[in-house]
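Field reference: sequence -> structure
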Amino acid sequence: MIPMRPYLLRAVHEWLLDNNLTPYLLVNAQEDNVVVPKEYVKDGQITLNLAPSAIRSLHIDNEWVSFHARFAGKSQEVF
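Structure field:
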């Protein structure tokens, strides 16, 4: 059976946007294959703003979340 988590993440993200709320994602930056700007990691975690005005090219797959965002004016890919 396919995990439910990615479906819930996509649904909650859409629901938050439909209600003019800002979606945030708390990420464990110490997990393997996590690509985030390390200088913004605190206590092994990073909170990311997933609002369309803050990111571009959002992709929520069954395996990962990826997008491009600016950190201190520098565009970076988050995975």
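Note: The chain has a mean pLDDT of 95.
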